[in-house]
Every structure is written in C-alpha cells, then in structure tokens.
C-alpha cells in the first residue's frame, strides 16, 4: 500500500512538474512577438538583400537586449524568397500561422507586395512596405492593411524632379529638357511612371521610358539609345546588379554621372563600390537616412549585439545604407507593436490585427526617435486612418568616389500633386476589387 501511495505521489508530482513546464513554456511563448522576415540572401539581388536582412535581424536582437517591447521579446524567423514573387507567397503561407501568428510582413519586393495585398485583409496581417510597394497604398481609406511607411515611389520620383529643378535653376527651367527613366522591367520599376508623366505634363520636359530586363546586366541597347538621344538627365530605377551595370555603361558611354539620379534602392555601397571613381558625381534620393556610421543606434548595436558576439553579419557593414534600411524597417515593426500595447495591454503579445491598429496610430515624435538612437537619422512619422505613409521627407546624397555625402537640403513630396494621384489610383483599385472606402467607425476600430 505504501508503495502504491509512493507511486501515486510521484505520478502527481511528475504531472505537476509537467504541468508547470507546459505553463512555463506557454508563458515563454506568450511573451514572444513573432516577426517573419522575407529575405533574399541568395540569387541576383543578394548583395543588396543581405545587408537589409542583417540590419533587421540585428535590431530585433538589440530590442531584446534592451528588455524587449515592454518585456515582450522579439522572435524573428527568416524565409528565403530569392526576390521571386511565387517564393515570397510561399514564405507568407508557411509563416503566417507560426509561433502564435505573424505580427506583420515586410515583403521587401514590390511584386510580392502586389500579391500579398490580396491576402493580408483575409488573414488580418498588416504589411509594412517602407519605401516600396504600391504608391496608392498610402491611402488607408482603401488599403487598410498596407503601410508604405516613410515614403512611396511617387515621393521618391517627385523629390528627384524637384532636385533636378534646383540644378537647372528653377522648375520653370525644366521646359524643353529631356529626362530618361531607365527602369527595372517589373512592378517595382514601373511605379514612378505615372508621377513622372504628371510632372512632365506640368513642366514641359520630355520623358523617355527605357525598360531593362531582369536582372539588369544587359543594357547595351539602352545606352546606345541614350547616346543617340542625349537626355539632359537619367533617372535610374534599378536594384541589385542593374545599378553597377548602369554606372559602368554610363562611364563607357561618356555620359556624365553627375546627371544621373537613382531611386533609394539604387544608392547604396554595393551599387558603387565596384565602379569607384567611375561613379563619382552619381546622386541618389534617400528615404531620410543614408549611411549612419556615427548614429547612436549604430553605436548601441555595435556594443550590445556585435560586442557580445551576436551580430548577424560582418561588423564593417553596420551603419551602411542598406543595413540602416533593414534596421529602420525593424524599428517601424517594433514601434507599431509598442503603440498597439498602449491600447491593448502594455507588456502583452498583440495579434496582427491589433498590430495593424498600432501602425495606423504610429506617432514617432522626434523625442521618441532620438531616444531610440535615431537622432539625425529620421524625422517624425505620424500615421492615421487616411495616411498610412506618415512622412514624405527625402534627401539627396552623392558618391564622391569613396563614400556618399549629403548634397541637398531636406526635400518633401509635393502633396498637391501626389495626394490627388493617390486617391484616384486607390479609388480605381477599389472599383476593380469591389471595395468600399472605410467609414469613420472603421477608423476607430
């Protein structure tokens, strides 16, 4: 009888221990906020995709080193897309339900963004597309789940035209000028066309459209046409190897690099390092930040992440342009969750639907940004039900042969031009998809 009682006691104790372990495990899981990361560390665009992915991963580690999001730790899982839309959709389907459910997806591809825009409302998972994706998704009245935070391609194109206007002595001096858009023949590359056509009609410059086939290494015909037409300025809407190829072709053609402007995905170290002095004078618009080697957040990453032997990639890339783009994208993801916790419970894991509310009510004041280590790196970003972009600031930096240096004051996308275009395109999308504009009540939910 004693033996039976002893066995029962052990069984009860073991059951209690198992229960405690289950509870502890559940508690640990409940205190992790899951952030899927769609990356491309392989393929033609890997040289640009890798530093972005490393910046995102390192910032999530930094958040945990700081104590999490009010105590909630971040959990990051990468999925390799190779920049292919079908693989991106596969990654989304694979990760959306893992680890309690995805908080937010960042597609890092306009093509993948187009595909996921159809899925996000059904699955109630927000999309952050900072500096890419559908320009009209800035309209939160139609695109409830899309957040092109800090800038769209129409902002990029508009601020490039503004800076060209300054170079020629005023926007009125653009009349009669010739501008060529050399663009990646994909949804990404086609995004700026409506804005540039609008500006061309306004100012009387001639716009020529020169598509380049993926991945962008074959541009001989393009540059023969540029040599023939002699445009006053070239806008490079490239990504990956297309950018360095373009600069080498410009050099071979004798086209002045100081008359070439890149989008913010065409103005990073991998784009120019192999061209070196041959790219001197090349300009690129930047979505607020550039290379930020001396910023507070970079110093903190070096100390608390790389200094502990936990860095994701090489220490030397920390603070470079695309690394900062990934780091900033991670900061947006985290701060939206922090905003959601203010409403749904501080220190709690939030759902994707709750996180969406946070991204729609983001209020990154300068004081908040400075406290996060982004002093001098980012300007305030404030979203609302109508405005899912939150800021339209940009700057131009120029390659001096060895590094990028700031070469413009702050520029801002012209809302009088961009906002009507956004609304018209969003309304057209809504009509095609049979969507109705959100009600004031929906904006409160």
From TrEMBL:
InterPro entries: Leu-bd, Peripla_BP_I. Residues 1-28 form the signal peptide. Belongs to the leucine-binding protein family. SUPFAM superfamilies: Periplasmic binding protein-like I. The keyword Zinc does not apply. Keywords: Signal. It comes from the Bacteria. It comes from Hydrogenophaga crassostreae. This is ABC transporter permease. It holds the Pfam family Peripla_BP_6. Gene3D superfamilies: 3.40.50.2300. Residues 38-400 form the Leucine-binding protein domain.
């Amino acid at each position: 009888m004693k033996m039976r009682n002893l066995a029962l006691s052990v069984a009860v104790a073991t059951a209690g221990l198992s229960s405690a372990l289950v509870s502890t495990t559940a508690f640990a899981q409940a205190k992790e906020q899951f952030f899927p990361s769609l990356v491309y560390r392989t393929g033609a665009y890997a040289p640009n995709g890798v530093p972005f992915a490393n910046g995102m991963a390192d910032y999530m580690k930094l958040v945990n080193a700081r104590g999490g999001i009010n105590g909630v730790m971040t959990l990051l899982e990468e999925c390799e897309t190779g920049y292919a839309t079908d693989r991106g959709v596969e990654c989304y389907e694979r990760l959306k339900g893992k680890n309690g459910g995805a908080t937010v997806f960042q597609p890092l591809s306009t093509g993948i963004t187009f595909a996921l825009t159809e899925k996000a409302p059904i699955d109630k998972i927000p999309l952050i597309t900072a500096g890419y994706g559908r320009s009209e998704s800035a309209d939160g009245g139609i695109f409830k789940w899309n957040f092109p935070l800090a800038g769209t391609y129409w902002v990029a194109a508009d601020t490039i035209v503004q800076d060209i206007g300054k170079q020629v002595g005023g926007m009125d001096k653009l009349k009669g000028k010739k501008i060529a858009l050399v663009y990646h023949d994909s949804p990404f590359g086609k995004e700026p066309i409506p804005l540039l056509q609008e500006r061309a009609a306004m100012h009387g410059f001639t716009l020529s459209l020169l598509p380049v086939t993926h991945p962008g290494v074959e541009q001989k015909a393009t540059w023969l046409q540029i040599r023939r037409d002699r445009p006053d300025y070239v806008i490079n809407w490239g990504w990956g190897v297309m950018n360095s190829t373009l600069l080498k072709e410009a050099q071979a053609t004798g086209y002045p690099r100081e008359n070439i402007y890149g989008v913010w995905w065409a103005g990073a170290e991998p784009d120019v390092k192999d061209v070196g002095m041959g790219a001197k004078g090349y300009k690129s618009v930047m979505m607020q930040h550039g290379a930020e080697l001396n910023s507070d957040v970079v110093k903190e990453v070096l100390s608390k992440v790389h200094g502990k032997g936990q860095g994701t990639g090489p220490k030397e890339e920390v603070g470079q342009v695309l690394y900062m783009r990934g780091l900033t994208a991670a900061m947006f993801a985290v701060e939206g969750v922090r905003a959601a916790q203010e409403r749904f419970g501080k220190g709690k894991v939030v759902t994707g639907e709750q996180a969406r509310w946070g991204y729609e009510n983001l209020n990154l004041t300068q004081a908040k940004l400075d406290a996060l280590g982004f002093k001098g790196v980012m300007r305030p970003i404030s979203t609302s039900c109508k405005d899912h972009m939150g800021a339209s600031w940009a700057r131009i930096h120029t390659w001096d042969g060895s590094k990028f240096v700031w070469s413009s004051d702050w520029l801002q996308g012209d809302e009088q031009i961009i906002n009507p275009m956004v609304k018209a395109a969003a309304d057209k999308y809504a009509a095609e998809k049979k969507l109705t504009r959100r009600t004031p009540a929906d904006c409160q939910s």
